[in-house]
Specification:
The protein has helices at 2-7, 10-18, 21-33, 99-119, 130-135, 198-210, 217-231, 235-244, 251-256, 262-288, 293-304, 308-325, and strands at 44-46, 50-57, 60-67, 70-74, 85-92, 146-152, 184-187. By secondary structure, it is α/β, with parallel strands linked by helices. It has a five-stranded mixed β-sheet with strand order 1-4-5-6-7, with helices on both faces. Strands 2-3 form a two-stranded antiparallel ribbon. A hairpin with a 2-residue loop joins strand 2 and strand 3. The longest helix is centred in the last third of the chain and has 27 residues, at 262-288. The chain starts with a helix and ends with a helix.
Length: 326
């Protein structure tokens, strides 16, 4: 059971979903080219998401390590003449108020890794000018550009910065001189992406339905179940949506169900997601009023009719997610 729960984490499920090259290319075509087929699945190649480098400056060295959710390299396109481009994707369940700086760090890590790999060729300085030797790169050397998109799956509208300037308190007269760093943000529940991949369309449509605050939770669930049944939504999409919506999913049950019964699985798992949401509200209110953990656990058991162990699990999950947001 512990292993199954570990594999059901939203970040793991989302990463697996976007590893599919058809879905990945379709998403970036929608984001970058208004749905035109510029990036093709066969032109994508997976990269190691672990981007590590050593920053050396005078008397100190700082280790920079950033692990992206998904990244692929787009090879040269015979149709559009595109040279190599790195495409990175980050998935966010919660608003991260330092996200522009975080993306800037990820992108820098990718460039620094390219620089380090390139510099190895010039250790002896043979054939280099003095400036090239100091730079550890030739004047003609070029690196692969990096483009990163952030997909936000949260319920609340994104109210954080979308560029470095949005994180800074810049005196007006200096603003034009402070370099900015913009990030590409896509809100899963509210976007106008021209997607062609049916799984991608179903994914974003379902997320949009389930976080629509204009409808009651019961109505949202009803609409989503109807959509899943009517459109014969793929198992992979249901698994991803229920995971993002914090619903526990029984994979063995899912595999045993036929395609026409997928909506039943969705309905069953959604009930657990609703309970998790109520548990979060009870815990948050408890801390706000200064209640002890013992009292909060008792309130969880009483209000949700759950066991002490289940209450403890909800509290542990809440604590961990709160720490991650900070």
């Amino acid at each position: 059971m512990l292993e199954e729960k570990r594999n059901n984490k939203p970040d793991v499920v989302l990463k697996k979903y976007w590893e599919n090259k058809e879905r990945f290319s379709d998403f970036f075509n929608a984001v970058l080219f208004d749905g035109k087929t510029v990036i093709r699945p066969e032109e994508l190649e997976d990269l190691d998401t672990d981007e590590s480098s050593i920053l050396e400056h005078k008397n100190y060295a700082e280790t920079l390590k950033a692990s992206r959710d998904n990244i692929a390299i787009c090879k040269k396109s015979t149709r559009y003449g595109i040279n190599f481009v790195m495409l990175g994707m980050e998935s966010q369940e919660h608003i991260h108020y330092a996200m522009p700086m975080r993306i800037m760090g990820y992108d820098y890590g990718a460039y620094k890794k390219q620089y380090d790999n390139n510099a190895v060729k010039y250790k002896n300085g043979k054939g280099l000018s003095s400036d090239e030797f100091l730079s550890k790169m030739r004047k003609t050397d070029k690196f692969i550009p990096v483009i990163t998109a952030v997909i936000y799956y949260g319920e609340r509208p994104w109210d954080g910065a979308v560029s470095l300037h949005g994180m800074l308190d810049i005196p007006k007269q200096f603003s034009r001189y402070v370099n900015d760093y913009k990030m590409i943000l896509i809100e899963a529940g509210n976007n106008n992406l021209k997607l062609h991949n049916v799984n991608n369309r179903d994914l974003f449509n379902l997320v949009g339905m389930l976080i629509d605050k204009r409808e009651t939770p019961g109505k949202r669930k009803e609409q989503a179940i109807h959509y899943v049944k009517k459109n014969h939504v793929d198992t992979t999409v249901i698994r991803t949506v229920t995971s993002v919506m914090n619903s526990k999913l029984d994979y063995q049950l899912l595999e045993r169900k036929g395609e026409n019964e997928m909506f039943t699985v969705f309905e069953e798992t959604w009930k657990e997601g609703e309970q998790a949401g109520r548990a979060e509200e009870i815990i948050a209110a408890g801390y706000e009023f200064g209640l002890s953990e013992k009292t909060i656990l008792e309130r969880l058991q009483k209000k949700l009719a759950i066991t002490p162990q289940q209450a403890q699990e909800y509290l542990a999950t809440y604590t961990k997610e709160t720490e991650q947001r900070c």
